[in-house]
């Protein structure tokens, strides 16, 4: 296993300021780098780049979008090259990516820069893609009062970073894992013997955990409200039923989240019904990468 340098303190501070745990980010990067060198060293770079050569390179967007993961990319170069690599951040996460305008410049041993290149681009490209898609959904529901939320439909091992990217795009996070909130779905209802029974079981086991119930019909919404839930997920509800559900919870303090069958084209009309959230799995499971490249200066 290759020995990588530790995460630079100044980059750890940037990540922490963005709400990320530096230790988690470092673990993700180390796994990615180990994957790249699992079968041996970078033979192409070692063969073509003289030992001791130094270079300066820029991470550059090839298309417009929203940035996420720029300090993560910088951290990749630091883990490979250590203090021998200088990094300069030119843009903050959440900012607009401008075509051909560098967001990150690194200077150091050429071999280290080229070894780190693909891992850095994979991470910043994917995270910026998530942020870009999220911003499109956020813009689509602007003025309605509804927020765009992510789901747990994330790439294994990247959830923390993907949910961070959603925030960079202006979205909100749903639960991070299975223990920070309860979501009673149809299989739980079937196992417990009904919505009321499922809610009572969760309340008894975890009284302080936020509780949401997935409903397929208006009758289930009524039962969930009567059971005292805090949040109801409307699964694949037609617009007319969504509006009725909004009326049912009016004055109760129960919030509504629309999910299933959503599209960017329909987002505004669903949000206009008065729901509090739109849950969009596509933010993370279907976001195309934002195209960024790494260019060594001549």
Question: Could you explain the architecture of this structure?
Answer:
There is one protein chain. With 298 residues, the protein is α/β, with parallel strands linked by helices. It has two domains: 140 residues, Quinolinate phosphoribosyl transferase, N-terminal domain (Aldehyde Oxidoreductase, domain 3, Alpha-Beta Complex), CATH 3.90.1170.20; 146 residues, TIM Barrel, CATH 3.20.20.70. The protein contains twelve helices and twelve strands. It has a six-stranded parallel beta sheet with strand order 6-11-10-9-8-7. β10, α11 and β11 form a beta-alpha-beta unit. α8 packs parallel to α9. The protein is elongated. The model has no long low-confidence stretch (mean pLDDT 96).
What is the gyration radius calculated from CA atoms? 23 Å
How far the N terminus sits from the C terminus, by CA atoms, comes to 33 Å
Shape: elongated
Number of individual domains: 2
Beta-strand content estimate: 15-25%
The chain-level structural class is alpha/beta
SS field, number of helical segments = 12
Spatial order of the strands forming the largest sheet: 6-11-10-9-8-7
Write down the CATH topology of the largest domain. TIM Barrel
CATH domain class of the largest domain: Alpha Beta
């Amino acid at each position: 296993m290759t020995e990588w340098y530790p995460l630079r303190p100044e980059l750890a501070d940037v990540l922490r300021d963005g709400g990320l745990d530096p230790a988690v980010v470092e673990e993700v990067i180390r796994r990615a780098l180990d994957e790249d060198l699992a079968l041996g060293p970078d033979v192409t770079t070692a063969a073509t780049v003289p030992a001791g050569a130094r270079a300066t390179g820029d991470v550059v967007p090839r298309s417009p979008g929203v940035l996420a993961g720029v300090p993560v990319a910088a951290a990749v170069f630091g883990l490979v090259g250590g203090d021998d690599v200088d990094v300069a951040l030119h843009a903050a996460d959440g900012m607009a990516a401008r075509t051909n305008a560098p967001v990150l410049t690194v200077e150091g041993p050429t071999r280290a820069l080229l070894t780190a290149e693909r891992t850095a681009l994979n991470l910043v490209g994917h995270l910026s893609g998530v942020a870009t898609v999220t911003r499109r959904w956020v813009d689509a529901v602007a003025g309605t009062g509804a927020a765009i939320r992510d789901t747990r439909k994330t790439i294994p091992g990247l959830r923390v970073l993907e949910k961070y990217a959603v925030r960079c795009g202006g979205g909100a996070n749903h639960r991070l894992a299975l223990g920070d909130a309860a979501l009673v779905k149809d299989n739980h209802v079937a196992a417990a013997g009904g919505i009321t029974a499922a809610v009572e079981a969760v309340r008894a086991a975890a009284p302080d955990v936020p509780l949401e119930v997935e409903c397929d019909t208006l009758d289930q919404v009524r039962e969930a409200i009567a059971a005292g839930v805090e949040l109801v997920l409307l699964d694949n509800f037609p617009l007319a039923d969504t509006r009725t559900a909004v009326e049912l919870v009016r004055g109760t303090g129960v919030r509504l989240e629309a999910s299933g069958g959503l599209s960017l084209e329909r987002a505004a009309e669903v949000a206009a019904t008065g729901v509090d959230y739109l849950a969009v799995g596509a933010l993370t499971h279907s976001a195309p990468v934002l195209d960024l490249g790494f260019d060594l200066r001549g």
